[in-house]
Specification:
CATH topology: Rossmann fold
CATH class: Alpha Beta
CATH architecture: 3-Layer(aba) Sandwich
Order of helices and strands: HEEHHHEHHEEHEEHHE
Helix content: 40-55%
Shape: globular
Radius of gyration: 17 Å
Structural class: alpha/beta
Number of domains: 1
Oligomer: single chain
Largest sheet: 6 strands, mixed
Length: 210
C-alpha cells in the first residue's frame, strides 16, 4: 500500500466525517466587500467547522459534489433573478483553478468539476450562460490553510495568468471553495484588471464559505 502523508492528514482532519450535517442547503448568496477593497465577493455559507470539513472532503476526495452543486446553482439562480443588470448581459461561469500538477496528484480540478456542473444546471434552468476558463494557475502554491497571513499573501503573488476571454460588457462569476484572507481572489482580480477594464466586465467572485 502506498503511503500518502497528505491523505493521512486529510483523514485526520475529517475523522468525524459521519457527523457532518448541513441543516440548510438553500443558502443565500450574500454580497460582501472584502477588506475595504473593490472586490465583489458573494458568500454562500458562513464559515464553520462542519462546512470546512464538508469542503475538504469534496476538495480531496470528491465527496458531496451533488450537495454543493445544487446549493451553489440554486443560490446563484436566485441572485441572477434578483439583479436586473445581470439578466440583461451575457453571463459566464468560471472558477479558481488548481495547478495542473495538483490536478494530476488529486485526480482532477475540484472547482472546475463543480463550476462546470453549476453551469450545466443553470443552462437547464433557461439561462443564456457560458462556461469559461478565464484564468490559469501558473505557480505551484502551497495550501493556504497551513500558512500565516503574510505567507498566504506571498504564496498567491503572481499565481495566475489570463486564459480565455469573455465577450465585452459581460458578467463573470468566478467560483472558489473557502475565503479566509481573500489573497486568492485578490491575486485573480489583479491578473484580470486589464482584461476587466478593456472588455468592460463585471466580475463577481463566489466563495462557498466565508
Amino acid at each position: 500500500m502506498n503511503f500518502n502523508p497528505f491523505e493521512q492528514l486529510v483523514n485526520y482532519i475529517l475523522n468525524v466525517d459521519k457527523n457532518i450535517k448541513i441543516h440548510d442547503l438553500r443558502a443565500k448568496l450574500q454580497l460582501r466587500i472584502v477588506n475595504k477593497s473593490d472586490l465583489k465577493v458573494l458568500c454562500l455559507y458562513n464559515y464553520s467547522e462542519n462546512i470546512r470539513r464538508l469542503i475538504l472532503d469534496y476538495k480531496y476526495k470528491f465527496r458531496h459534489k451533488k450537495l454543493l452543486v445544487e446549493a451553489v446553482s440554486d443560490a446563484l439562480s436566485d441572485f441572477i433573478h434578483d439583479e436586473e443588470f445581470v439578466e440583461n448581459k451575457k453571463i459566464y461561469i468560471s472558477y479558481i483553478p488548481r495547478h495542473p500538477l495538483k490536478s494530476i496528484l488529486y485526480g482532477g480540478d475540484h472547482m472546475k468539476i463543480l463550476s462546470k456542473q453549476v453551469y450545466k444546471n443553470l443552462a437547464k434552468m433557461g439561462f443564456q450562460i457560458k462556461f469559461i476558463k478565464i484564468i490559469k494557475r501558473v505557480k505551484f502554491t502551497k495550501s493556504q490553510f497551513i500558512l500565516n497571513t503574510q505567507e498566504r499573501k506571498n504564496n498567491m503573488k503572481n499565481a495566475f495568468k489570463t486564459a480565455q476571454k469573455p465577450s465585452k460588457d459581460s458578467v463573470v462569476f468566478i467560483i472558489d471553495d473557502i475565503l479566509k484572507s481573500s489573497n486568492t481572489f485578490k491575486s485573480a482580480d489583479l491578473t484580470l484588471r486589464r482584461t476587466k477594464k478593456d472588455l468592460g466586465l463585471k466580475i463577481y467572485f463566489i466563495s462557498i464559505s466565508c
